[in-house]
Amino acid sequence: MRLFRCLCLATALVSIAAVLSPVASADELPAAIVEAAKKEREVVLYGGIPGQALRPIRELFEKHYDIRISTWHGDSEELLKRTAADARRARSNFDVVVGSDTLMAALDAKGYFEPFDAPSTRGYFKQLLVASRRMTPWRVFVFAINYNTQRLSAEQAPKTWEDLLDPKWKRKFLMANPALHSATLQFLLNLEKILGSKWRSVVEGLAKQRPRLTRDPPEAIPTLASGELPLAIGYTKDKYQFGGPIDYVRMDKYLVSPSYVAVALGAPHPNAARLFMDFFLGPESQQLIANLGDYVLHPDVPDRFENNIKDDQLVPMRIPSASERETWTKKFKEMFK
Q: 3-state class of 217 per DSSP?
């Protein structure tokens, strides 16, 4: 597919050659790319970086390189439509895109990304990296059992997903409705990765426990924090990103949903795109994101999970096909009422 192939003729030939092929891992980007990026003067970012991190990341990047960052924000559906419109015009209006695993996989399947092996990811945990290097993870959402520490001690809280099937937890926990929340649907299907053949009976058991359903995991936080219900299926980051007496159950393995960043195929500012992506995946930017409570992947960046969760405990979730998602949405609508 030759979507978005429009390279700027003014770019030096040596820089064009560097852009057209993945960059080999090294301590830093080649000087030719950095200098060409400075001449491009701008990088256009589609998608979402947490607002509390985006501003300082923008300030650091612009201070370091004197390259302006322009942003466009939209939800997954809006981003799909916008990139499709770019494809119809056979030109890209964006340089870098940031999004969820489901969104980024859909865009990658359409051929919208250029391979780029960012030097700053040299020490990233290999299990989480995409072999094609057309997109790179920068954080993961870690699914867990959260509990109210004023209602339950760590010893009293359920230790495993199977423990949630104990009759004493019936109607005592919250979870996002998998018929409405795609990441929760994905999580339930991926329980097979850590539970094996018994995953389906566990999912059916969770439905029979009649949890209180929400539209998304953050909606459960006030109820959990108040102690009205003692448990919730959510993310480990909830412990740090929301106020209240919340902790997560320590487990041997955790299912995770990565967020990815990628360089657009035929980016209007190809060198600036690579420079920004490498900077975004590097220690300065990753530390700003880690400070918000997210689990980040740069090995030199301490995060709040360092003593409790290790990279080799993370199990990346597969992405259900469209037909599989449709089938299970219907099943979950009946199971979780």
A: helix
